[in-house]
Amino acid sequence: MPAIKRISSRDNPFFKSLLKLSSSARERRELGQTLLDGSHLLRAFLDAGGTPRHLLVNETASQDAEIAALLDACGDVPRTMLDDGLFAQISELKTPNGLLTLIDIPQASMDATHSQFALLLEEIQDPGNLGSILRSAAAAGCDAVFLSPGCADAWSPKVLRAGMGGHFVMNISESMNLLEVAAEFTGKIMAASLQADRSLYDSNLRGKLAFAIGNEGAGLSTALLDAAQHQFIIPMPGKIESLNAAAATAVCLFEAVRQRR
């Protein structure tokens, strides 16, 4: 195991770069890197075959058996101990568990032509919603997710935490022209719309399939609705007008899972 360096000054250049990475989507895009907060995300990353760039711990973490086992599993990956105050500035958790992992953001290796079960996400702006959607997509067996330029940063700490490791088992493509993606996709594109007449449950969701899901308030753009072969509505017999984007997506995905099993 490599020796652990220690950082105790906020003027340290490496600490400054980590702090900027934790808070800036532009920095994450430019460097192609992000931070995983906690042991669960590191375990999911390792299980998916990932190799961290750097491991960051605080004093408390060095006494934790689970974290010690993860550090052992990372072999020769460099590691640094941050003073508790510095660690707390980088971690967004109210009670940090003492482990942060610097990784290269995985590059998508699948285009719309080869995807079998995909999501097209338009203007999903809430990080918690986006993370929950990615978690549901991974659980349902989606192989690709395509995000419009107006979506939240998929690799931000908040989205990663809500995704619970789902990021590492799918291809995630950001800042995509969804009309071009729709044109390239060779299966059915199903669009959720409150104006549709057909129920989700009366739709054939077998075969090569993509769901188009729109903004939390405005829904899908007219152009993307027109690009879909089928529009559907989720029946809601209760006295609520709509579901939030994450809940609606989960309903759609697992109805597809039910039909395709």
Describe this structure in words.
With 261 residues, the protein is an alpha/beta fold. The protein folds into two domains: 4-104, 60s Ribosomal Protein L30, Chain: A; 117-260, SPOUT methyltransferase, trefoil knot domain (Alpha/beta knot, 3-Layer(aba) Sandwich). It is 36% helix and 18% strand. It has ten helices and eleven strands. It has helices at 13-23, 25-31, 39-47, 65-73, 84-90, 127-140, 157-163, 178-184, 222-227, 245-260, and strands at 4-7, 33-37, 54-57, 79-82, 99-104, 117-121, 144-147, 171-173, 188-192, 209-213, 230-232. A six-stranded parallel beta sheet has the order 8-7-6-10-9-11, with helices on both faces. Strand 6 (117-121), helix 6 and strand 7 (144-147) form a beta-alpha-beta unit. It is elongated and about 60 Å long. The N and C termini lie far apart (45 Å).
Strand order of the largest sheet: 8-7-6-10-9-11
Quote the beta fraction. 15-25%
CATH class of the largest domain: Alpha Beta
Shape: elongated
User: How many domains make up the coordinates?
Assistant: 2
